[in-house]
Specification:
The chain has about 300 residues and is an alpha/beta fold. About 45% of the residues lie in helices and about 25% in strands. Strands 3, 4, 5, 6, 7, 10, 11 and 12 form an eight-stranded mixed β-sheet that branches. It has a two-stranded antiparallel ribbon with strand order 1-2. Strands 8-9 form a two-stranded parallel ribbon. It starts with a helix and ends in a 6-residue tail after the last helix.
């Protein structure tokens, strides 16, 4: 049953007149009659008894009118709720973040956003960059922050900032090596490695590739799934690791970790905000995305 036919039925029912219903809906009387006849044919019942100039609803007409009124009410509620989505900054945003932004950058940014828009709840899901990209593509996330350019035609990449990665180790390990070592000396160190799919690992692989080295040449003593686990393993003296300064700054300041300078090894990683090109974001998600871009994209240089 088409909406316009039901609309015509309701006006005829309420006005008890085909001509008045036609005038009210700015349609011709034959059009109104055609709509009612079509409904009656679909339902195989008479909806109105024509008595003189008046039309009186049959029992079937009464049942249909109540059902259509309920349907129109539900549609009005849906329209109202949708308008709230597009006019009010409130509701749930489901976003993803790889380890560094999720743990060291987004908490402050989300806090400042919530001070402005207190009715927004953010469901922040942490995973590696590959997983975040996949979930954005699958529609499970409104958008995500990842440590590397997401190579997919359906993904928009917005550059946020460039992060400096460094080699760190516990002081007793670092003291066994010169202040500055060469990339070719890296295989002499024991290593705590991030898992495949990690943006940190990818950045390290790219930096080593420029020196015709493969990451498999570095002897891994542990393989971990998060920056936090890697830092804890390095602090315990298990081996050296590569991580963002953001993750180890306090440990470098306190002397619990030491930086190993590696000549001519520039390990940098770019962070991007990614969104599905065909995904429509409602106002709360769109406003949060813009807030993140404005807060984090000030350091996007190479």
């Amino acid at each position: 049953m088409e909406f316009r036919k039901l609309q015509a039925f309701v006006r005829v029912y309420e006005l008890q007149s085909f001509s008045l219903a036609a005038r009210d809906l700015f349609l011709s009387q034959p059009t109104i009659s055609t709509h009612i006849i079509s409904l009656e044919q679909d339902l195989r019942v008479s909806l109105f008894d024509r008595i003189g100039r008046k039309v009186i609803p049959t029992q079937a007409g009464e049942i249909l009118y109540q059902a259509v009124q309920d349907m129109f009410r539900i549609l009005d509620e849906a329209r109202s709720n949708i308008q709230e989505l597009t006019s009010q900054v409130s509701g749930m945003v489901i976003m993803g973040g790889s380890t560094i932004p999720a743990n060291y950058l987004l908490p402050g940014v989300l806090s400042s956003f919530r001070r402005i828009y207190s009715d927004v709840c953010v469901d922040l899901r942490t995973a590696d960059s590959i997983k975040i990209s996949h979930d954005v593509l699958e529609g499970r996330l409104d958008f995500g922050l990842v440590g590397g350019y997401a190579e997919h035609l359906d993904l928009e990449n917005h550059l946020l900032f460039t992060d400096e990665l460094m080699v760190v180790a516990a002081p007793d390990i670092a003291s066994k090596y010169p202040q500055v070592i060469t990339p070719q000396q890296l295989p002499d160190l024991p290593w705590v490695m991030r898992e495949k799919g990690s943006g940190t690992r990818q950045a390290m692989e790219e930096a080593l590739h420029k020196h015709k080295m493969d990451i498999s040449s570095l002897p891994a003593k542990a393989l971990v799934q998060s920056t936090e686990a890697m830092v804890r393993c390095v602090l315990s003296g298990l081996g050296a690791g590569v991580t963002s300064r953001l993750a180890v700054d306090e440990f470098l300041s306190s002397g619990q970790l030491a930086r190993l300078e590696v000549s001519d090894l520039n390990i940098r990683r770019r962070f991007y905000l990614i969104k599905h090109r065909r995904r429509t974001l409602y106002l709360c998600a769109s406003m949060l995305m813009q807030h993140i871009l404005s807060q984090l994209s000030h350091n996007a240089g190479s």
